[in-house]
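Batch 3, record 17
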Amino acid sequence: MEVLLAILIGGLYASGLYLMMRRSIVKLIVGLAILGHAANLLVFTAAGLTRAQAPLVAPGEDAPPPLHADPLPQALVLTAIVISFAVLAFTMVLFKRAYQTVGEDDLDQMKATDT
Amino acid sequence: MKGFVVSLILRTAATYMLPLLLLFSVFLLLGGHNEPGGGFVGGLTAASAFILYGLAFDVERAKVMLRVNLIRLVGVGLGLAALSGFFQILMGDPYLTSAWVTIPLPGLGELKLGTPLLFDIGVYLVVLSVSLIITMTLAEQ
Amino acid sequence: MLVVGLLALVLAFAAPTIRRYAGSATGWILAAFPAGVFVWLCVLTPDIGAGEPWRFSQEWVPGLGIALSFHIDGLGLLFGMLISGIGALVLVYAQGYLGEHKDLGRFYTTLLLFMISMLGVVWADNIVSLFVFWELTSVTSYLLIGFDHHRDTARKSALQALLVTGIGGLALLAGLILMAIATGSMELSEIAARSDLLLEHPLLTPALLLVLLGAMTKSAQFPFHFWLPGAMEAPTPVSAYLHSSTMVKAGVYLLARMQPTLGDADLWTPLVGTVGAVTMVVGAWLAMRQVYLKLLLAYSTVSALGGMVMLIGFGGELGAKAAATFILAHALYKGALFLVAGSIDHAAHEKDVRKLSGLGRLMPLTAVGAMVAGLSMSGFMPLFGFISKELLLEAALETPAWAGLFGAASVIGAVGMVVVAIAVGVRPFMGSWKETPRKPHEGGPTLWLGPTILAALSLLFGVAPSLVQKVLLSPAASAIYGVPMEVKLSLWHGLTPALGLSVLAIAVGVGVFLMRPGFIRLTSLSDRVGAYGPARWYTWVFDGMNEIARVQTRVLQSGYLRAYLFIMIVTTVGLTGWMMLSSGALAAPTELTPVQLHEAGLLALVLLGALLAVRSKSSLGAVAALGVVGYGVALIYVLFGAPDLAMTQFAIETLTVVLFVFVFYHLPKFRILTSVLARTRDALVAISAGMLMAALVIMAVSQRPLHEPISAYFAEHSVSKGYGRNVVNVILVDFRSIDTLGEIVVLAVAGVGVYALLRLREPREGGSS
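Prediction for the assembled complex:
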C-alpha cells in the first residue's frame, strides 16, 4: 500500500508543479492546491500507515489501543489543511484583484504591466 | 449572488439547516476533546452553515443573521486563545500550560473544565470568522 | 565590569541628548569617561608592572568555550592608556572642531562606541570576544569615515575601508579558530602558554597566514595600504584618533599579542619583517610626494605602521623594546600633528601645504605643539621620537639576516618621516603669512589643548624616559617578548651606527624637503605605475563582483515564476537525487501494509482527478477535478485512521470549491499559451520531481526513524495529563498549543489580508477608485 501511496503522492506533486509552471494564474492556483494535498499526504504517509485505528482513547481507558494511527502527523496535517486553505483563498483574492486591474490571466502580461 | 437561480427547496432547507448545523458545530467543538472534532472542524461547520444560508438567500441576509463584526470576531478568537495561556503563568508554569477544574454535577457525574477548552473556543472563532470573511467578501464582489 | 561596559554604552547612546542640554560643554562631559578609564589604568599600573594582569571573565556560550573574558597585561595597559588618553583629548577637540555641526551628537555616539570596541579589542582574552570587538571597530570606523554621508567620496572610502578590514577580519577569525583547534583553548593567554603545541601542528602555517592577513588589512600594510589615505575623508578628530593612534594600530596590537605565540615559527620573521619593511618604504615614498596636510600624515602613518610591524617581526628583546617605544612615541607625535592639521584647516580653510606659511604668529600655541611634535617625528635630539628612532635603527641593524636591507628600509622610512614632519609641523608656521581663504587665528582651548598636551609629553618622555620605562614600557615589552624584561631608555647612546644613520636620515630628509617641487616632478613616473597599484586591484575586484551579481540576478531572477520553479525543481531533484543514488539510501520498495482493492481504486481515482485537472480546458473543469482530488484525499484519511483529518478535509474542500466557483465562474476557457516543446520540458521536470518525492516516501516508510517518535508520549499521556480522549485534539489545544496559536495567527492574517485587499481600496491618484 505504501508504494501505491508513494506513486500517488509523486503523481500529485508532478501535476501540481506542472500546473504551477503554466502561464495561466488559474492553473497556478489549482496547482498550488494540489501541491498542498500532496504535501499533506506525504507527511501523513511518511509517519506510517495504520488501517482504521484512530488515535482515540476508549471511554474508561488510559491509552489508545496498541495499534493506533500516529496522532502527531495528524495534528500537523490538520492545521496544514486549514492554513493551506487560507493561503489558497488569499492567492485567489490576489488573483481576482489583479484580474480586475489587468483583465488578463497570463502571468507574463502581469509582469509587463507591473501593477 | 446574483445570477444564480435559487430553488425554494434550498431556501427552505437552508432555513432549517442553519440552527442544526450551528448546534452540530458546537457539539463538535465541545466534544472534540474526546471524540473526533474540535475547534477547527467546528468552526468550519459553523462557517458552512452561514455560507449555505448566504447561498440560499443573499450575503447581506446572512450577515444580518450573524449580527457580529467578523474582523472583531477574529480578534476575540485570537485574544481568547492567547489569554487562555496566561492563567498558569501566574502559577509559575510556562505559557499555555493547561489548567483544569473538576465540577461535580449531582446525578450527571462530573464536568471537567480547562483552559484548553477556552483555547479551542478561540480556534473555533478564528476559523469561523476567517472562513466567513474570505467567502463573504468574495461573494459580495 | 559588565555594568561599567553597559553604562559606557548608555553614555554613548545618550550623547545626542547630552549635547542638546549641555551644548558646548558636551565634549568635556563625555571626555570624563575615557579620562576615568585612564585614571583607573594608572591605578592598575603597579599590579600589571609586577606581572599580575587584571582579569575579568563572564560566561557567554559556555558550550562552545566562548566567554566575555578580558585581561589587561602590559600591552593592554599601553594600548588602553593610548586609547583612553588620546580619546579624552579627541572628544574635547571634536567639540571645538565640529562644534556647530548638526550631527555632532551622532558623531560622539559613534566615537564613544568605537572607543569601547577598541578597548575591547586590546583587552579581550577570548578569541571570539576579540573578533567581535575587532569587527565592531571596523563597523564604527565605517560610520565615522562616512560621517559626512552626503558626500560620495566619503561613502566610497567608508565602504572601501569596511570591505578591506572586514575581509581581513574574517581571515583573522579563521586563523584564530585554527589556533584554538591546534591548542584546544579559546583564551589567548592559554594559547600563548601552549604555543609549543601550535608550533608543531600542521595548521600552524595557515593559521599564521590568516592572522597576518587580518593584521595587514587592519593596519594598512602593503598591499592593503590604500584604504587608509581614503579614510582621510573622515573629520579630522576621527583621523587623529582612528587612523593614527588606535584602530590602525589594532593590527600592530594583534601581531604584538601573537609574537609570544607565533614568534618562533620559521615563517614569522621573514614574513612579518618583510611585510613591515616594504610597507615602511612604500609609505615613506608615497608620503614624500603628497602636498595635502592629511594625506602627508596618512601615508607617513602607513610607513610608521610598517615600521612597527617590522619590529614585531624581528622579535627578540630589542625588537619588543623598540616596538613598544615606537607605538607610544608615534601615538604622541602623530596624534598631535593630526590635530594640528585639523586646526590649520579649521582656521585657514587651506589643506595644501605649499600655500601655508607664517601661521606661527597667528596661532602661537598650535605652532608650539606642532613644532615639538614635528621635531619629535623627525627624530631630533631631546624628544621622545629620537629615542624610538634610535631603537628602530638599532633593531634593524641587529637582525641576523639582511641587516643591510632592513637598515636601508629603516633609513628611507626615517627620511619620509622627516619630510612629512617638516612639511606639516614646521614649514606652515615659519616665514610670513601668505593669503589663505580665511584669515587664521588661534582657536579656543578645545583646539589647542590636545596638540600641546601630546607635544609636551613627547618632550617630557624624551628628557626623562625613566618616567615611562618602568611603569609602561617594560610591562608592554615583556608582553610582546613573552618573558618579563626590563626596558632601559636613555637619550644618549654614544656614537653608534644608529646615531649616524639617524643624522643621515635627517640630512637627506631636509634635503628632499627643500627640493620637493623638483622631487615630485622627477618622480611623477611612479604615479603612472601607482595607477596600476593595489587601489586599482580593489576596484577591479569590486566592479567584478558587482558585475557577477548583476549577471547572476539577470539569469536567476527573471521575474517569471515558472523560471524560478524550474530552477528550484531542477536543483532540488538534481542534488537530492544525486545524494540518494550515490549514498545507496534508495531502498527497494517494501510493502508494509497489504494492498486492498477498494483502496487501490480510490488512489487511482485521486490520481485521475489530478491528471484531469492538468488536462482540463476550462477553469470550472479544473476546479471540479480538484474537488475529486480533495474529497478523495479525505477518503484516504478516513481509511487510514484519521477521522479528524477527514472531517476537516471535507469541510475545507467544500469551502474551496465554493470559493473557486465564486472567483472563476466568469472566466473564459484556457488559452494555450506555451509551445509543445515548453510543455514537454515542464512535464519532464515535473515528473522527475514527482518521482523524487515518491522515492522519498518509500525511503521514509522503509527506514527506521532517526529519532524515537514522540507520538508515543502524547498517546500515553493524553488522558492522564490532557484530560482528553482524542489525542489529536489534545495535541492541538494542549501539548502543542503554542504551535496552534501560531497557526491561527496565520489564519487571522490571511483573513484580514483578504478583507483588506477587497474592501479597503487605496484611493487612486485623483480621487475615487
